[in-house]
Amino acid sequence: MLIISCAVLLLLMGLLYGPGRNSNTKLQPPEAAGSWPIVGHLPHLVGSTPLFKTLANMSDKYGPIFMVRFGMHPTLVVSSWEMSKECFTTNDKFLASRPPSASAKYLAYDNAMFGFSVYGPYWREIRKISTLHLLTHNRLEPLKHILYSEIDNCVKTLSDDLVKIEMSEMFGHLILNVVLRLVVGKSTVVIQKGNGENYTKDEEEGRKLHKSIIEFFELSGASVASDVLPYLGWLDVDGQKKRMKKIAKEMDIIAEKWLEEHRQKRRLQPLSSPAAVGMNHDDETDFMAVLLSVLDEEKDDQFFGYSRDTAIKATCLTLILAATDTTSVSLTWALSLLLINPSVLRKAQDDLDTVVDGAAGGGEASKLDFKGQDFVYTPFGSGRRMCPGINFAAQTLHMTLARLLHAFDFDNESGGSVIDMTEGSGLTMPKVYPTRSSPSPTPS
């Protein structure tokens, strides 16, 4: 009887809030066939095939703009640069917000992480502060030595202990160290330990944080019933919400520790010091110290509806999470593609030898527009919600890959088989199967 009652309730909710209640008579884009009552196109969109491939196949059938229904939510899909330009120019403001989701609520401090935030004054202010005090070219340029020193540490570690390495783990630890030094002033992750060596407490914390970052992005891209059927918010059938709360708690404990360390440091500093002044910080002041100073200028404990501590922790974790995962995933894909195309890998290394020898040239790559201005290639998005970390990503990805390719030859360690390039699930499409290699130093 309970099952029948629930089924009737779901049907009524579908009738009340479903597409049939929409009286809008404006011309609508075509809707993909096969929509089910209440759940919409979900049966066609979930499964082993990555979502982007399913949508690409639909686009071949329905054209560059069409509708699908994620449960109760009508969703517009665009797949041409012309339609993309319309979205990010003429209609940019209407598409600048974010829908409510379980990941935003449980993983992102109830939308306080500005990547998940709705479009409004909180998002604008936090993004402005983050860009101005960390992500501009002028701010990153004097901090290049941090990137260089971490890459040098990685190269030295690999040279001293030539063993088989797993690429995504190596890149993840390297980039996390760079980002941690920029954001909280410390690097804690060791890329490789020798046999019998134990990790320090800080090193264990760093490795735990990296694992949490991986799980964070996996869960951010997961399908939760309440996201598509809001009236099922009380359900957690597959335990995804429980996992989200666990990961959020683990990261919050670490962020709270960083915040307390920074507050302790501020209490010991004279009021005239750069970290205490905030806006006049020097090149060595990390972002959390600056953010603490800027937000401490607010008169009360609230910052656009969030406590100051929540805003600081959420913003710092946003930068750490986004920079670490996206950059390390991109580096893993780049090196994997080079390994399955040895002639291209050889050419890249030859070009690097030429550049390092002093005969640097432009080449075709410099003509590639990756800033999304032509809307054909938009790895950082476009419009108001364009990724603010474009300067960091371009600088870090290119320098890391170039330095490692110049220092080492990388062999395919997939047991003689072709590297499996299957795409995984999640927000940033990691590889399903790891890429392993045994680096050997290139001849001097």
UniProtKB/TrEMBL annotation:
Pathways per UniProt: Alkaloid biosynthesis
Cofactor(s) it depends on: heme
Keywords noted in UniProt: Heme, Iron, Membrane, Metal-binding, Monooxygenase, Oxidoreductase, Signal, Transmembrane, Transmembrane helix
Compartment(s): Membrane
InterPro entries, sorted: Cyt_P450, Cyt_P450_CS, Cyt_P450_E_grp-I, Cyt_P450_sf, Plant_Cytochrome_P450_Monoox
GO molecular function, one term: heme binding
Source superkingdom: Eukaryota
An annotated GO BP: isoquinoline alkaloid biosynthetic process
Signal peptide as annotated in the record: 1-22
Lipid bilayer topology: Single-pass membrane protein
Family, similarity comment: Belongs to the cytochrome P450 family.
Cross-referenced PANTHER family: CYTOCHROME P450, CYTOCHROME P450 82C3-RELATED
Protein name per its UniProtKB record: Cytochrome P450
Species the sequence originates in: Papaver atlanticum
